[in-house]
Amino acid sequence: MLQSLTGNSCVRLIQSNKSAWYFLFLVLGYILYLIFGAVVFSSVELPYEDLLRQQLRGIKRQFLQEHECLSEERLERFLSKALEASNYGVSILNNASASWNWDFTSSLFFASTVLSTTGYGHTAPLSDGGKAFCIIYSVIGIPFTLLFLTAVVQRIMVYSTWRPIMYIHTHWGLSKPLVAVVHATLLAFVAVSCFFLIPAAIFSALEKNWNFLESFYFCFISLSTIGLGDYVPGEAFNQRFRELYKLGITVYLLLGLIAMLVVLETFCELQQLKQLRKMFYLKKEKPQDRLTIMEHDHLAFSSMPDGTVNLPQEDKTEPFVDFPVLTSPGGDDPMIK
Hints:
Layout: H1 2-16, H2 18-66, H3 72-87, H4 104-115, H5 128-172, H6 176-206, H7 212-223, H8 242-268, H9 271-278, H10 287-302
Helix pairs in contact: 4-8, 5-6, 5-8, 6-7, 6-8
């Protein structure tokens, strides 16, 4: 008997807090996914990092043996300076001296990566004034960009999603959830083809050291606003039409980001995903439910016997006396004033 009561109480507890349990499982699943990613990245990349470190140590050792007049400390200072400059996008190599990071088109490309929060990191402001302006520019520009993208996506969704679905549902008589799923799938296929596969083929042809996988990797990292910065187009030596190329990449990033937001918004409008999201959200208390709770409390209070409610009693030792208000006949008593 006790076990059945305990089991029933546990079931009622789970049923009454279903959203909280779903949210707890969501948090645990996300933590496990983070751990899974860390384990995979560590197991895959750590051997390559160790191999690269060994190669660099071997090259450094061989260089010092061939140049005995150069001490290891002077070489370390030189390399630290060169690496520090490389972090700001400045290279001392001869094949990179012709490329400027802060001409107009490169600055436009940098501004687009800042406002879209892509942030490749291959170029950074060098001066204190540039860093301060970057902070102010981002504080104003990022919300402005979100507003701009929201307005653009909302207008595109009318013609790319809502009207086609309603047209097919009305004229063909198909179920609206089914039409929405098929439409979202086709829209995702078109977006992947136009903003991932085709641009990856173009980048692999324009960039000499990129294959198709690396080009596709750049497209995905860029349009998902991850922006690792390990692959940045237009930075090769003697890049032909570099200014026009950088301008085209800027336009591609903005259009691709809009397309990705349209696809994501289309999938978020699916009824199946809406139901899935509701599993993890807190339920909003409706005004009718609130009124019902208040009426229930009022009825419960009025049905109680008079003696069950212990109200604080007044102190009867000093009875309350209603003092009259003192007024003068002429209204000119200086004490009253």
